[in-house]
Design brief:
With 140 residues, the chain is of the alpha/beta class. The chain has a domain of 97 residues: Ribosomal protein L13 (Ribosomal Protein L13p, Chain: A). Helix content is 31%, strand content 18%. The chain has a 4-stranded parallel β-sheet with strand order 5-2-1-6, with helices on one face. Helix 1 crosses helix 4 and helix 3 crosses helix 4. It is globular. The N and C termini lie far apart (36 Å).
């Protein structure tokens, strides 16, 4: 008996649509990360990209519990003196709601080459429309 290892060329990729409207951010991110990694497949291997493509719509309607709307802060640092920036969850919801889901999902993926490749299969859109109708994505 030999152990079967999935090869990237043999994996059949599917497309999924997650409607983030009136769902909690963490729940959406966990489901998206799991589909992106391919953990729902029988041929899952932790060292191979076996995952599917995920389209998340209605990113602007995602919910958070408690006071996170105002208290949750996203920070970045450019590396230069005075290069520290911080924005609240509410600011990102107004300016760029796609970032909220992308940031949450990216934190749940491996922090290496494999994770960067998996992350490229995530597509997040602010509203209800997306340009991936030709791929016939299935709802989650």
């Amino acid at each position: 008996m030999s152990t079967y290892f999935a090869k990237t060329e043999e994996i059949k990729r599917e497309w999924w649509v997650i409607d983030a409207g009136s769902q909690h951010l963490g729940r959406v991110a966990v489901k998206a990360a799991s589909l992106l990694r391919g953990k729902h497949k029988v041929a899952f291997a932790p060292h191979v990209d076996t995952g599917d493509f995920v389209v998340v719509i209605n990113a602007e309607k995602v919910q958070v519990s408690g006071r996170k709307e105002t208290a949750k802060i996203y920070m970045s640092f450019s590396g230069y003196v005075g290069g520290h920036k911080s924005r609240s969850f509410r600011d990102y919801r107004k300016r760029r709601p796609e970032f909220l889901i992308e940031h949450a999902v990216r934190g749940m993926l491996p922090h290496n080459r494999l994770g960067r490749g998996v992350y490229r299969k995530l597509k997040v859109y602010r509203g209800n429309a997306h340009p991936h109708a030709a791929q016939n994505p299935r709802p989650v």
